[in-house]
Design brief:
The protein has 9 helices and 15 strands. With about 300 residues, it is an alpha/beta fold. The radius of gyration is 19 Å and the shape is globular.
Length: about 300
């Protein structure tokens, strides 16, 4: 496993404490969101119905970033406040994302998030003392070989799929490629499926997030990345604690995590993918995106002080 260390300038930014401005329930805009979303599926329960007893033993939170912590591309104020409150309570928060290593550096360096596992399980970034540590699931030789294959597949996709463009964050990617379908460009569902098919035909793993289509070589994924970082950072076996971790996500590429964790939660905007989901989380929040994450954090922290 390759390790890179770099100075992490400054101290991690601390959000305002829980007592200062913690959003009231329900979060602003919840009623407006409900009017625009598909109905609550029968396979998931409202997050506010989760028993406090089930949350008292929570040992940490795993979360996606895009459209889970972020709203309009920025980690929302209520999500930052929630991250700070979880940090103050001593609960580790680990982000598991398809975003690239380069994009993830400021998130890992400058927020209270304990670690970021980027590129769908391939790269881990975390602070160790005053240093930002970057570790790779694949060795350097494997990454170099795969890089050539990745670029060849990317060229084929761009040539064969009308309107396909590389994600704007591609310069920061080390172990995968990403095609934009909803962040700055728009691809039809048929074009998205064509991209996925081309990736799979090239022997790649392919997943579709709320904004990108990601493809990579290797056996890693979001779940293996979560196992890796919990062992590396905390020295614990995540498989012995699956019922004690909350996972929060927003898209079809979170389905394996939804299936694995009993305390899986989708923020409300997940319902926009209702016709594409085969696995639902156990719970759904009332609010979308960063406000939905704040809703999750509020319940977890309230359960720790009740009973």
């Amino acid at each position: 496993m390759d390790v890179t260390r770099a100075a992490a300038p400054g101290r991690p930014k601390q959000g305002p404490p829980l007592a200062e401005g913690w959003p009231a329930y329900p979060p602003a805009g919840v009623l407006a969101f409900r009017d625009r979303l598909p109905a609550m599926p029968k396979l998931a329960h409202p997050w506010h119905a989760c028993p406090a007893a089930a949350l008292r033993g929570v040992r940490g939170v795993l979360t996606d970033i895009d459209d889970t912590l972020t709203t309009e591309g920025v980690i929302s104020p209520e999500a930052l406040l929630a991250l700070s409150a979880l940090h103050q309570a001593g609960l580790p928060v680990i982000a598991i994302t398809g975003r690239p290593m380069g994009w993830s550096v400021p998130v890992a360096r400058d927020t209270t998030i304990d670690a970021v596992v980027a590129e769908n399980g391939a790269v881990a970034l975390f602070r160790e003392g005053g240093t930002l540590v970057t570790e790779y699931e694949q060795d350097e030789a494997t990454r170099a070989t795969n890089a050539q294959r990745l670029q060849a597949t990317a060229r084929r996709i761009l040539a064969e799929v009308p309107g396909a463009t590389l994600a704007r964050d591609s310069a920061g990617r080390v172990t995968d490629i990403a095609i934009d379908h909803s962040e700055f460009s728009h691809l039809s569902p048929e074009a998205i499926q064509q991209v996925v098919a081309l990736m799979q035909a090239a022997g790649m793993n392919a997943t579709v997030s709320s904004i990108h289509i990601n493809g990579w070589y290797g056996s890693h994924n979001k779940l293996s990345g979560a196992r890796w970082i919990v062992q590396r950072l905390l020295g614990r076996d995540l498989e012995n604690e699956t019922s004690s971790w909350v996972y929060v996500g927003d898209s079809t590429n979170d389905q394996a995590m939804f299936a694995h964790f009993p305390l899986s939660v989708g923020v409300a905007n997940l319902r926009r993918f209702a016709d594409q989901l085969t696995v639902w989380p156990a719970y759904l929040t009332d609010a979308e995106r960063g406000a939905g994450f704040a809703e999750v954090a509020r319940a977890v922290l309230a359960a720790r002080t009740s009973g």
